């Protein structure tokens, strides 16, 4: 989303507590520096009370592609569509049966960011998307749920380019489920310690995407191999030399040193 000129009927966000968590509303107008914003819960549901706030706290927004929008059809029924393009308060929307229309924002509604208060009102006006799309999404969710269950929630297993064997999975599971994760992975050469460590590192970055920092200390002959493994097998190339460092084991090295 990006800032745009704000006109009555435009979609806006209010950058003021508590409304900054309410998502998208519609700008109705302003008098004396006080803006009026109307939020939308769902078709068939009562409109929430109008919010009054300083004009300076408003930020105009353009609707991202695939945002779900609602409009009231001429016959009084609600239609559900998806945004294809938003430009200067005119939105190209795709409705069912590949029906595409350009509609001014004042004639569209977008749900705010708060939980749906009463799902029955939405179902009663039949303002849901087609069963075809719902069935496809449901099957996708079921498959993702099955995969997560099979991996016991260790999503790094599902998103790494590896062939895992049972004993490696058990090692990874034990380390990641232990609140004190201080382990020495010791095994014969070629039995997958690099894969085990790589999964643990990837999971760490998935769980702590903003704060994770990792240093891998290896002999000189293994520096390039580890960099390649972390990039190709575990998809961490974008973090190398930023928050993920593969360094040469040298005399006097201390893991707590600032990188």
List keywords for this structure.
259 residues; alpha+beta; SH3 type barrels; 2 domains; 6 helices; 11 strands; 26% helix; SNF2_N; SNF2 N-terminal domain-containing protein
In CATH terms, what is the fold-level topology of the largest domain? SH3 type barrels
Distance between the termini: 35 Å
Shape: elongated
- Strand line-up of the largest beta sheet: 4-3-2-1-5
The level 1 CATH classification of the largest domain is Mainly Beta
Largest sheet: 5 strands, antiparallel
Helix content: 25-40%
CA radius of gyration = 26 Å
Number of helices: 6
The average pLDDT score comes to 88
Structural class comes to alpha+beta
N-to-C SSE string, H for helix and E for strand: EEEEEEEEEHHHHHEHE
Description:
- Keywords: Hydrolase.
- GO terms for molecular function: ATP binding; hydrolase activity.
- This is SNF2 N-terminal domain-containing protein.
- With 259 residues, the protein is α+β, with helices and mostly antiparallel strands.
- The chain has 2 domains: 11-124, SH3 type barrels; 148-248, no CATH class.
- It is built from 6 helices and 11 strands.
- The chain has helices at 119-124, 131-150, 155-158, 166-177, 193-207, 223-232; strands spanning 11-14, 25-31, 34-38, 51-54, 58-60, 68-72, 78-87, 90-95, 99-104, 214-218, 244-248.
- The chain has a 5-stranded antiparallel beta sheet, with no helix packed on it. The protein has a 4-stranded antiparallel beta sheet with strand order 6-7-8-9, with no helix packed on it. A two-stranded parallel sheet has the order 10-11.
- Strand 6 (68-72) and strand 7 (78-87) form a beta hairpin.
- Helix 4 (166-177) crosses helix 5.
- The longest helix is centred in the middle third of the chain and has 20 residues, at 131-150.
- The radius of gyration is 26 Å and the shape is elongated.
- It starts with 10 loop residues before the first strand and ends in an 11-residue tail after the last strand.
């Amino acid at each position: 989303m990006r800032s745009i000129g704000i006109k009555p009927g435009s979609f806006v966000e209010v950058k003021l507590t508590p409304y900054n968590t309410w998502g998208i509303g519609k700008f109705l107008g302003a008098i004396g520096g006080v803006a009026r914003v109307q939020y939308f819960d769902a078709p068939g549901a009562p409109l929430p009370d109008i919010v009054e706030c300083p004009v300076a706290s408003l930020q105009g927004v353009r609707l991202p592609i695939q945002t779900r929008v609602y409009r009231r059809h001429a016959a009084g029924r609600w239609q559900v569509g998806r945004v294809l393009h938003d430009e200067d308060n005119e939105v190209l929307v795709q409705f069912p049966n590949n029906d595409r229309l350009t509609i001014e924002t004042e004639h569209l509604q977008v749900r705010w960011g708060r939980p749906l208060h009463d799902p029955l009102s939405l179902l009663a006006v039949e303002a849901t998307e087609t069963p075809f799309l719902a069935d496809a999404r449901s099957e996708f969710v079921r498959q993702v749920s099955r995969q997560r269950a099979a991996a016991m929630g260790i999503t790094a297993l599902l998103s790494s380019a590896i062939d895992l064997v049972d004993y490696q999975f058990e090692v990874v599971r034990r380390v990641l489920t232990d609140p004190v994760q201080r382990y020495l992975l010791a095994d014969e050469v070629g039995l997958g310690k690099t894969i085990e460590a790589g999964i643990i590192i990837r999971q760490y970055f998935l769980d702590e995407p903003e704060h994770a920092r990792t240093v891998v200390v290896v002999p000189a002959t293994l520096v390039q191999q580890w960099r390649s493994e972390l990039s190709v097998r575990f998809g961490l190339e974008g973090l190398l030399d930023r928050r993920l460092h593969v360094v040469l084991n040298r005399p006097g090295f201390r893991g707590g040193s600032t990188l």
